[in-house]
User: Fold Carbon monoxide dehydrogenase subunit G from Alicyclobacillus mengziensis.
Amino acid sequence: MRLEGSKAFPTAQQATYDLITNPDAISRAMPGLKELQAVSESSYEARMEVGVAGIKGVYDGSLEMADIVPGQSYRLLVKGEGPMGFMDADVSISLAAMEDGGTNVSYAGEAKVGGTVAGVGQRMLSGVAKLIINQFFNALVKEAKTIAKDA
Assistant:
């Protein structure tokens, strides 16, 4: 399943990068995230509760940032397993300054889903993935607006 999109943030590029890579901000913004534990500076173990069309479960997994170019880009590698299946994703995230002083955050990558949850169908899974990603970025933009207002 292809994942791609972008979101405008009202904060400068470095402030936006700091926000979207901050484990506390990620914990507050990610729907269903129950636990996020640092394993290293760029690697985390996570526990999420996710529900898709009546198939709900708790998933344990990992998030790792790779190919990091501070303030500009990184790859996010996500792996998760639960009672209903698994998910692997490899998503490139890049930041670009906008003329208004804000930052455009874009992402593009692939996600693979298997097990019972894959039986729900790619179209529905794609819709759920987009919903979760939008909720995540909208929550981060809300935090960024508070940062920009306080600056």
About this structure: The mean pLDDT is 88.
